[in-house]
Design brief:
Layout lengths: L1 H8 L4 H18 L6 H8 L3 H8 L2 H12 L12 H9 L4 H20 L1 H28 L13 H16 L5 H16 L5
Length: 199
């Protein structure tokens, strides 16, 4: 009994954490957010439910942290020396197959967010706000380099444009988002809106 208690109190290793996050994303794809339970995660990962609650607090935080962990690279690590290069590097962090899987996953979660204020709050605090802060740094560097005038109205909407393109590609065109689509969208829409020459 003491040995089990000590094991449960021990810190989860990064490898174990990655396994847990992968299992959460598998379950999300299989059953969706509303049907996903901490019991199911515990069973899939051979963990105790108490450990999951102790480590993550609840389903919203666990799900959002799994999504964040699954994101390729880190926005803050991108610095190619130009805004166009940075935005293209951002879109090339995932291959088309992964991008398609993630787009389907996000569509399901966007619907769940509307009915789950706790999930919305977790998204804002753990994913959206940190990502927006990193993204502002990329845009600020472009302003400091003189690529973008600081009074360009589109500066406040770059993330909205990119997420909109990613999220609505399948809705409007009945096709998944791809690197080629997002790269052409950046060149045709985002950079012109910021007054950045493409060629």
């Amino acid at each position: 009994m003491t040995e089990v208690s000590a094991t449960r109190r021990s810190r989860i290793t990064p490898e174990r954490e990655a396994e847990l996050y992968a299992a959460v994303l598998e379950l999300l794809r299989e059953v969706g957010y509303d049907a996903l339970t901490m019991d199911a995660v515990a069973a899939r990962t051979r963990s105790s439910k108490a450990t999951l609650y102790r480590q993550w607090g609840g389903k919203p935080e666990l799900v959002v942290k799994a999504i964040r962990h699954n994101k390729p690279g880190n926005v803050s690590e991108i610095d190619t020396g130009s805004l166009r290069g940075d935005l293209h590097a951002l879109t090339s962090q995932e291959d088309d197959c992964t991008m398609q899987q993630n787009a389907a996953l996000m569509r399901g979660l966007f619907m769940a967010v509307h009915n789950n204020p706790d999930l919305l709050q977790a998204f804002k605090e753990l994913l959206i706000e940190p990502e927006m802060e990193e993204f502002r740094r990329i845009l600020q560097r472009a302003v400091e380099r003189g690529e973008v005038r600081p009074d360009r109205p589109a500066l406040d909407y770059v993330v909205h444009m990119l997420i909109g393109a990613f999220a609505t590609r399948s809705l409007i065109d009945d096709r998944p988002p791809t690197k080629a689509f997002l790269t052409s969208y950046i060149d045709a829409v985002v950079l012109p809106a910021l007054g950045v020459p493409v060629s």
